[in-house]
Amino acid sequence: MNLNIAICDDDTNVIEDIKNKLLAYRNDYQIDTFDSGIKLLKNQTQYDLIFLDIEMPEMNGMDVALKLRKINFKGHLVFLTSHTEFMPEAFKVKAFRFLKKPINDDDFEETIVESEKEILNNKKLVIHSTDGIKLLYLNDIICFETIKCYTYLYTKNGDIETRKSLHDWMETLGTEHFIQVHKSFGIALRYIDTIESNFIIMKYTEMKVPVSRRKISIVKKAFFEYVKKYAVFT
User: What gap in Å lies between CA 178 and CA 223, rounded to an integer?
Assistant: First the structure.
């Protein structure tokens, strides 16, 4: 899942610090930076997550956040501040977290992990299927299978036939929550039930998904790291 992230702070050192932390955590985030709230508000990009400094000239971060919510911004807001007296105001704009400057590495990573969890749970995809356009929660996808020129999405609510290739699906969704395990199969890491020597049993389905021999150790490592990071129990 490639998140669109904005960093808005009038201090370029803070911007660079957050950007470096993000890229150290994952290198596929789409990151935009702004040195004022006014510039951020003029941008039309739909962000999943915004790091927003509270104390900025011209327009402070709290006023920027109020305007963002008024124009229907539904993403996560993480406030950056050296003070805590702004916290009561943050409830008005549904702030996700506060990060106190200078930003602690552990606090930052916890914020990213928890934000990705919530975004995944609420993220929707517009699917162009062979039966028409469908709206699907990302979190409902269990696995993918390519058969001839079609890729089938097996979900918690049924199967969806698409003409999009498995490679393109993996590119769209990223490698944080999904992994290709075979030339014809991809899976959601959160729905792995059992890993055998050459196949995986997925939750909510009786399918035994084949795993390429060269990928079995990679899949095991990815799954254990995923569970450790997200503590997923479904």
Answer: 10
Q: Tell me the two tokens of residue 1.
A: 């899942």
Dist. CA 203–CA 209, nearest whole Å: 11
Do residues 153 and 217 share a domain? Answer: yes
For residue 132, give both structure tokens: 């028409």
Count Cβ atoms within 10 A of the Cβ of residue 71 and give its class: 0-12 exposed, 13-18 middle, 19 or more buried: exposed
Judge contact between 107 and 83, C-beta under 8 A. Answer: no
* Rg, the chain, Cα only: 20
Contact assessment for residue 8 and residue 18, using Cβ atoms and an 8 Å cutoff? no
What residues contact 177, with CB distance under 8 A and at least 6 apart?
1, 120, 138, 188, 189, 190, 226
102 and 136 in a common domain: no
Angle, alpha carbons 81-78-75 (nearest 5°): 155
Other Cβ atoms within 10 Å of 193 Cβ, number: 11
The number of distinct structural domains making up the chain is 2
> pLDDT tens digit string along 150-205?
999 999 999 999 999 999 999 888 888 899 999 999 999 999 999 998 999 999 98
182 shares its domain with 103: no
